[in-house]
Amino acid sequence: MLDKTHKPTWTSFEEATKADWDAVMEYEEAYNAALPDRILDAIRSLDEDWTPYPVNRYQHSLQAATRAYEDGAEEELVVAALIHDTGDILSPYNHGELSAAMMKPYVSQKTHWILKHHCVFQGYYYNHHLGGDRNARDKYRDSPYWEECRYFCHEYDQKAFDPDYPTKPLEFFEPMLRRVLSRGEGHMELNETAEG
């Protein structure tokens, strides 16, 4: 049981003992267990009142996930479709990288790559209207995940703005999100070595 009455006395990591770090890890395990709830709250925060899109980002995220689910995508890709725009909240100009970083400990390299690069691939559908290069995604043609990212964007992301599409509710996807987030590597820095 976490001792919430004892406040640490160390003031730098250099001073902390093994017992101090055990207490920190106990706290972090309890805090990190609530990560699915924080991500669900982040998804809900996309439910803005007004949007220039036909549906808001919350509905878009649910619809993208529904499309992935109905297409028979693997569960972590359905979850990726659900959370792909949550990075928009804090980092609108590189939200794909933020969403990818958030999910990196829990998903495959392929799904991480798709999340990270989906913004560039989405640009195929609108960059040319805004003075950009719609083929910017082609710089990643050598990636083994290029086609999967193109498919993700074409079939799930860019189509997910239909107000009449039969979209599943967030509660439908919650167990999937919880399963994906339960299989993480934990603190990734603990897996790093001096060699690489």
TrEMBL record:
Gene3D superfamilies: Hypothetical protein af1432 (1.10.3210.10). InterPro entries: HD_domain, OP_Dioxygenase. Residues 57-128 form the HD domain. It holds the Pfam family HD. This is HD domain-containing protein. It comes from Ruegeria faecimaris.
